[in-house]
Specification:
alpha/beta; Rossmann fold; 5 helices
Length: 187
């Protein structure tokens, strides 16, 4: 079953884009950073074993409340996004980070941890504000958010292969959202 996963306001979700695949049958799905869309609940409703990790205890508390209201189970952890020690290596079939990685200081460490918890060839789906969406005459490309090239380089160095790129939404003359699906390579 395809989950009703949201990658951002005003852009297509996973029901249309189909980046995560079928989550039924108890597949393990990790929401890396609790997004405004509480995707772990969508994972659980689709039949996945949902896991949510976020450093903000209030977000985890809200996730627990919403999961109770939805009558689904979400395993919740208050932890830095790069501290995935509570998750056994090679046990997740999908990881989704919907607009939650912009402020990560050590992206390489985070990507290595995601690589560790994913099964080989499984997807890591990332949505973020498109780096072009903030470009102005006073804020040239590359001075704010990570560039598209820096995302590709970081993912490649962590042994991920990007197999889908979507530039979605409207923000003036540039897309508002960059959506990447990267697959774990190696073991």
């Amino acid at each position: 079953m395809v989950a009703d996963i949201s990658y951002g306001a005003g852009i297509p979700g996973d029901a249309e884009l189909r980046l995560c695949g079928d989550l039924s049958g108890g597949k393990r799905a990790l929401e890396l950073g609790v997004s405004d869309w509480f995707n772990s609940i969508a994972f659980a409703r689709a039949g996945a074993k949902a896991i949510a990790v976020d450093p903000d205890a209030a977000k985890i508390s809200e996730m627990r409340r919403r999961a109770d209201d939805a009558e689904v189970t979400v395993q919740c952890h208050v932890a830095d996004l790069a501290d995935l020690g509570e998750i056994t290596s090679g046990t997740c079939q999908v990881v989704v980070a919907a607009h939650t990685l912009a402020d990560v200081d050590d992206l390489g460490r985070l990507l290595r941890q995601v690589h560790r918890v994913l099964e080989p060839s499984m997807p890591f789906v990332i949505s973020l504000d498109h780096p072009f969406s903030t470009v102005t005459d006073t804020t040239p490309y590359g001075t704010g958010a990570r560039t598209v090239a820096s995302w590709f380089t970081a993912l490649s160095r962590a042994n991920f292969r990007v197999d889908q790129v979507h530039e979605l939404g409207a923000s003036g003359n540039a897309p508002s959202t960059l959506l990447l699906r990267a697959r774990k390579e190696g073991s």
